[in-house]
């Protein structure tokens, strides 16, 4: 390689991982109905983090502040932060303020359908020892500390771990189909780069 080619390569090499992500507008045209959303406002981001007592992982914060808050992306597209809250709120009435700050404790695959604790609690509902609503109040914490960021349909999600030992990782959520949670990628940028090519 000659000196000029080397200089050109260095000058035009993406400087950050964020700059390496393919052009979203091109991908949006290919996916047709999906669009590149506007970025999230600082006020909306700060409001979320203050309300729930968390700081979102740096890569995800950078993405929603500089690229797009939801819209075109892996699976059925990325959820906006507001949509992520709505998905989290589907179980039960009201959204506990500690739902995101409570640590997601897992570092290896976990399936609540195979956990005796949840089986016992479900049996208590069947025996009418506790109400279904009380069960849901507890069960909603199975995914605590994670933020659903993309839907795969049929009740499946890609989740960003925002608290706990796996913070920053992307996990697959197929709890709805009794398949549990599995780690998918170690960080948001790797996850999105691989899926937007």
From TrEMBL:
UniProt xrefs under InterPro entries: Knr4/Smi1-like_dom, Knr4/Smi1-like_sf
Signal peptide: none
Domain of life assignment: Bacteria
SMART domains: SMI1_KNR4
A family per Pfam: SMI1_KNR4
Domain (Knr4/Smi1-like): residue spans on this chain: 39-194
Protein's name in the database: Cell wall assembly/cell proliferation coordinating protein, KNR4-like protein
Organism for this UniProt entry: Colwellia psychrerythraea
